Amino acid sequence: MQKPPQSLDFALKETSPNIGAGSVTGDKLSCTYDLVEQMQYLYVRVVKAKDLPGKDVTGSCDPYVEVKLGNYKGVTKHFEKKSNPEWNQVFAFSKDRIQASILEAVVKDKDFVHDDFMGKVIFELNDIPKRIPPDSPLAPQWYRLDDRKGVRMKGELMLAVWMGTQADEAFPDAWHSDAASVGPESVNKIRSKVYLSPKLWYVRVNVIEAQDLLPSDKSRYPEVFVKVVYANQALRTRISQSKSINPMWNEDLMFVAAEPFEEPLVLTVEDKVGSGKDEVLGKCVIALQNVQRRLDHKPVNTRWFNLEKHLIVDGEQKKEIKFASRIHLRVCLDGGYHVLDESTHYSSDLRPTAKQLWKPSIGIFELGIISAVGLMPMKAKDSRGTTDAYCVAKYGQKWVRTRTIVDSFTPKWNEQYTWEVFDPCTVISIGVFDNGHIHGGDKGGKDSRIGKVRIRLSTLEADRVYTHSYPLLVLNPSGVKKMGEIQLAVRFTCSSLVNMLHMYSHPLLPKMHYIHPLSVIQLDSLRHQAMQIVAMRLNRAEPPLRKEVVEYMLDVDSHMWSMRRSKANFFRIMGVLSGVIAVGKWLDQICHWKNPLTTILIHVLFIILVLYPELILPTIFLYLFLIGIWNFRWRPRHPPHMDTKLSHADAAHPDERDEEFDTFPTSRPSDIVRMRYDRLRSIAGRVQTVVGDMATQGERFQSLLSWRDPRATTLFVTFCLIAAIVLYVTPFQVVALLSGIYVLRHPRFRHKLPSAPLNFFRRLPARSDSML
Known about the structure:
The protein is of the alpha+beta class. Helices cover 24% and strands 31% of the residues. The strands form 8 sheets. The protein has a 5-stranded antiparallel beta sheet with strand order 1-31-32-23-28, with helices on one face. Strands 8-9-2-5-10 form a 5-stranded mixed beta sheet, with no helix packed on it. A 5-stranded antiparallel beta sheet has the order 11-27-26-29-30, with helices on one face. Helix 4 runs antiparallel to helix 5 and helix 7 runs antiparallel to helix 13. The longest helix is centred in the last third of the chain and has 34 residues, at 670-703. Keywords: Calcium, Membrane, Repeat, Transmembrane, Transmembrane helix. This is C2 domain-containing protein. Pfam families: C2, PRT_C. It comes from Rubus argutus (Southern blackberry).
């Protein structure tokens, strides 16, 4: 089924940015930083000063340096009462915005009323040297301070000044002139950073048995279960079937933990003494640092742990010294699994936790985040709309965050990043966000989402540079909205074609997922816990990668019910089945002789295949080969992107969108919830009918030989006996030939009524009669 084209505004556009890839420039930069446009910067590194004169009555000074270039001014931090201060701060001025010919570095003394001038150093821009990595950094030099008239003063300032590009090592930590409106306390929140997800482990707690428990009420049979708590995860076993003081469970409980392990595993053995009332019989605490790590499915050694009894005496919790109760456990860190921390459909990493099981990389993926255009205003500042945009890209354990471009609807980042690739069937996610924390918005502020792009590496040709402008689409309660476009350059370089092709024969996940599989419910719960841990840890980094950013990148809410998504998935299934339906319609036309010439040719082909059955499989595979070669001409020439038609984002009813953005549990009024519940019931009723019909057909097959309808089973077994005899004495080719000619018979030999076998099947009984 050919899908309708997208609106041109929402489509992918090929671009031709001025990047080094594919061009011969003779510049060293084009070899290492060639997926982005070169941006020239004037760098000033203010290192330290010495022998500064005292300015106040005590003979000391509070120095700082002001770096001035035209209208732009960068200021270092100031030191109190220090004549030999060290700053080691870097300032970067964009060459595109330079309108002056002189650079000034002015040393001043911080004062309450008026900052005193202590001297300055002046540079002519024409004399500033150019530096291109991988040249070594320019060595700073001492410069004597001059007064305003150019006369030598006491004191010296150590500086390094050079022209460079964004490939310079000083670039990520520099103060940028295009962020001049950002205060010193917020500069750290706009810098580019690389983050690493914490190393995640599955913790398997196999609760085997307990011994010598001491319930307070010895006159009743104890109903004992074990509760295990790790961080904010809590699981419990079922109540033991052996209702005694030596209960048994042999039950596995799974948790997610991240290195470094900050909290212990806490087990409590509890007795259900009444409705909603549990008595703690004992407790033990296990530090995960001491737990055995396993790489395969071989069981680890079991251990007995003593259970401590905690008593409450006069409102205080006291530990009882004497204990005889103990619990038998098998606890391990499962390194053979891949801990799923993102939506399965968009996984960027499939390697197991244990590094010993990692296979060598098959290539590298390079991403050039060039620019964005047409961004929408995300917040108001000084009575006008503004956007402070930055990008986040996530692949595997590595997250990258570009610098924030302040107050621009057409930001230019021109930052390039590289990842190692271990599996081509993975997805990189790139999100664009508005920084809501650089103008004193720390308290309760959030970074708003502008849009997201996903690129599946397996859809990229090796060693080819793709430069496209991707639409940034966001679905709001008001409908699908284009928030702008992001221009990216991507390249997947394969180090070994043989290894990469060999990967296609490997299982997608590590072998532990198949040898010792986890249930779907377990995986969903563990994935949710893993996402929360990753979001919490990255939110604690400096600068933090905000929780709302991480959750959006990991598609935390992808499992939530959405009428729009359900419709889209239904039409995706119909699109997959459309090929089968088309073949069925074509066969029906052949059988009904709509085109006599085609039907005769099919007769001839059928007779040849019956007479020479060894040609059947070669013919099928040759046909598939020819279809593949034919489709090569129309192969996709660009990576896939967000499709509003496929997602049914542009056709969703307003109430369906409102339902999709509702909180969980719902926050809508009861009449709206009732209407949605009734709608869901009607849809579920149709699904229930379809499932019932499928069950009925299956039960009719079972009733052929079950003697539920004795006459029908008699007819069927008699037919089976006759068919066995006929097929035994008749060559198979004759049977196949007669069957095919019967199916392809001319319409004048057909009846409009259903065939006898179909009538017989529909009359068979099903268990639907026994349904209440």
